[in-house]
Amino acid sequence: MASARHRVTSRGPFSSILFRHPGKGGWHFAPIPLALAPPVTRGWGRTPVHAVVDGHAWDTSVWRAKGGGAVLAVPKRVRGEKKHGDTVTVTITFDEDD
Fold it and tell me: Which range marks the domain in which residue 75 is found?
C-alpha cells in the first residue's frame, strides 16, 4: 500500500506588528501577509499550523482576516510583555494536504 505524501511548508521568519482586538479581554494578533498566509484547509477560514513567535513554539491555527491576509492569535504566555504595536518575529509551518 502506498504511503500518503504530505507537503509540509514553512513560511518565515518574518516580522509582524501585534495588534489588540478592541474590547474587554481583546486578544492580540500577529497579521500574516497574504503572500505568506497558508491555504484555508478547515471551516471558518482557518488552517492548523505550528507557530513560532520570538522563539516560543505551539500548535494553533491561522485565521483569514476580513479584507484579505490572515492573523495568528498570540497568547500572553507566548508574547510575554509585548503588546499592541510591538514587533514580533513569526514562523509558521503547515501541512498543505491536511
Answer: 8-95
pLDDT digits (tens), the chain, 98 positions: 445 566 778 888 999 999 998 888 789 999 998 889 888 888 888 899 999 999 999 999 999 887 778 999 999 999 999 999 999 999 999 987 66
Q: Residue 12 maps to which CATH number? A: 2.40.30.100
Cα–Cα separations (whole angstroms), residue 44 to 24, 63, 93, 94: 23, 8, 19, 17
Nearest CA among 39, 46, 32 for reference residue 89: 32
Residue pair 36/15 in contact by the 8 Å Cβ criterion: no
C-alpha span between 6 and 47 (Å, rounded): 15
Structural domains counted in the chain: 1
